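Reading a protein record of the kind used here takes only a little practice. The integers have meaning only within a learned vocabulary of local backbone shapes. With that in mind, consider the following protein and its fold in token form:
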Amino acid sequence: MSKILVTGAAGFIGFHLCKRFINEGEEVIGIDNLNDYYDVNLKIGRLKLLEGEDRFKFFKIDLTEKDDIAELFLKEKFDIVINLAAQAGVRYSLINPYVYIESNINGFLNILEGCRHNKIKHLIFASSSSVYGANTKMPFSIHQNVDHPVSLYAATKKSNELMAHAYSSLYNIPCTGLRFFTVYGPWGRPDMALFLFTEAILNGKPIDVFNYGKMKRDFTYIDDIIEGIFKLKDHIPKPDPGWNSENPDSATSYAPYKLYNIGNNNPVELMRFIEVLEDCIGKKTKKNLLPMQSGDVLVTYADVDDLMKDTGFKPSTGIEDGIKKFVEWYKTYYHLRG
């Protein structure tokens, strides 16, 4: 069994990943700063389901605290590091840009330094479909150029990929970057559309629908994200002998570095997503049709061929099943009838 560090352990994806690793018999150390970007009680609720497990320890640590991170790495001697902690949210990056540099750049540097000085066998880190930015060629492929981000959040995630590659090249650290596509499901983030829409519909309030609903997202259910990470945990990247410096492929490298998309490979119209949600709740809603917001993109669509080739796994949960499970969780969590 491995000793695994999961940063952002009280977050949406981090919580589910810790739970999966614990169930598989791995030893997990989770860290989180429990910030108030969204309801801290939700984060505490997730942690309560993890704490008490023999194979799980939690420390309240901020990634930006360099000395605390260095001490943690030195003391715990991790085999694998999975960095999910970050300041999330495209729209919030327009309001508070500085926190994205502090958490996503400076914080990630501290993780890379910890890996560098402690002989980590594999670093897996969260990137985002947001890195595709102004790209319009569909589906989005990890082999495409992604040099045109349309939000600071996306720029920090692209920066993470570049920073990880530099450390992989300099210090021979095996690094795997994962571009997640619109993750949803039970215990999801309250700033995401599904949570916001569900809350509004159940309270009889209208929902804000941007770009007049003319958007598509590759909605990916949380269990599929977790399965993808689990499959890749022991799939440690090696230098690609076919990498060509005259025609460089950003998805692989002469260094032990690899990128993957993890998405459902099936973009869904936003209006269809809302329709399924209304059916699951059993209630229609009024829609405030609004123009496109800065930083948003029209469509996301994941090419997952490399993930399938290397792991044999492809996300497949449809929104009908995924949204139903979220609504059931939401009603249970908030003690709602029906």
User: Anything to note?
Assistant: The chain has eleven helices and 13 strands. The longest helix spans residues 97-117.
